[in-house]
Structure prediction request, 80 residues.
Amino acid sequence: MSISNEINKLKKDLEKLQADRYKAEAKMDSLKQQKEDLLKEIQEMGVDPDNLDEEIKRLEKEVSNLIAEVKKMIPEDLVR
Prediction:
């Protein structure tokens, strides 16, 4: 491959890498905005974003308790 061809290939590769970089930066900006929107929505629900794991566990326990309560209310002879 001639030097001219190598230079042209390198230019083309560089342009592709720059385009990929711009796409990645745009995607990152979009993801940052989504994160901010989600954090705002979580806060509007009255949940501290730092306590999401605890809130999820609390809600899972509440759902389990409600399911158990509903099961107790169904007569056994109707389940069979």
About this structure: The two ends are 80 Å apart (CA to CA). The chain has two domains: 1-46, 48-80. The chain is about 85% helix and 0% strand. The mean pLDDT is 94.
